[in-house]
């Protein structure tokens, strides 16, 4: 593998797409959003206010892993994906050497994210946010970005990591 994958992870509404795009632009590489990889049944389930189960997520995670492995054969990739549990992250990095991936966890408090979610259009309703926080297993060996800060503060945090 000649490329690397930088997974941007966190609960819904934490800023994965916004920050993922910023990082991809900084590195001049491709950005992909895990939301676009969900099967229709998963989107319908979330839209109706029902949280996904591990079974619902399994095929989605495997598809992302397969896609990413093909992409990083040729290029660097930034990928936004909730990756809330350690077991999900294991699926996402399966078959990828340790020196070819980096996790970036977008940390933020429930209240701030809930308020953000109320003002955006997305298939994931704010009513499911608590279920995401309940599932979240804080990752080890990751960059942590506090997304409760202003966009300027977030950019400063990213610069600290990206300059290392």
Main traits of this protein?
164 residues, alpha/beta, Rossmann fold, 5-stranded parallel sheet, 45% helix
Biggest sheet features: 5 strands, parallel
> How many H/I helical runs?
7
- Roughly how much helix do the residues carry, as a percent range? 40-55%
Average pLDDT metric: 87
Molecular shape:
globular
How large a portion of the residues is in β-strands, by DSSP E? 15-25%
Low-pLDDT ranges:
none
Count of beta strands: 5
CATH architecture group name: 3-Layer(aba) Sandwich
The chain-level structural class is alpha/beta
Task: Please name the CATH topology.
Answer: Rossmann fold
Overall number of structural domains: 1
Euclidean distance between termini CA atoms: 22 Å
- Radius of gyration, in Å, reads 15 Å
Corresponding CATH superfamily: P-loop containing nucleotide triphosphate hydrolases
- Output the helix-strand order: EHEHHEHEHHEH
Question: Can you characterise this structure?
Answer:
It is a single chain. With 164 residues, the protein is an alpha/beta fold. It has one domain: Rossmann fold. 45% of the residues lie in helices and 15% in strands. The longest helix is centred in the middle third of the chain and has 18 residues. The radius of gyration is 15 Å and the shape is globular.
In short:
The protein is an alpha/beta fold and 164 residues long. It contains 7 helices and 5 strands.
Secondary structure: elements and pairs:
Blueprint: E1 5-9, H1 16-27, E2 30-33, H2 40-47, H3 54-71, E3 77-80, H4 86-93, E4 101-107, H5 110-118, H6 129-135, E5 142-146, H7 151-162
Parallel strand pairs: 1-3, 1-4, 2-3, 4-5
Helix pairs in contact: 3-4
């Amino acid at each position: 593998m000649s490329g690397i994958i930088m997974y941007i992870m966190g609960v819904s509404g934490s800023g994965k797409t916004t920050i993922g795009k910023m990082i991809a632009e900084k590195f001049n590489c491709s950005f992909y959003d895990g939301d676009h990889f969900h099967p229709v049944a998963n989107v319908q389930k979330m839209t109706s206010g029902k949280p996904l189960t591990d079974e619902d997520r399994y095929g989605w995670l495997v598809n992302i892993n397969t896609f990413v492995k093909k992409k990083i054969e040729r290029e660097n990739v930034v990928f936004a994906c909730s990756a809330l549990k350690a077991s999900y992250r294991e699926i996402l990095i399966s078959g990828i050497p340790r020196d070819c991936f980096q996790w970036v966890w977008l940390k933020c408090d429930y209240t701030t994210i809930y308020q953000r979610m109320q003002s955006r259009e997305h298939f994931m309703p704010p009513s499911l946010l608590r279920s995401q926080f309940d599932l979240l297993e804080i990752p080890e060996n990751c960059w942590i970005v506090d997304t409760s800060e202003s966009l300027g503060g977030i950019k400063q945090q990213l610069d600290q990591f990206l300059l290392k």
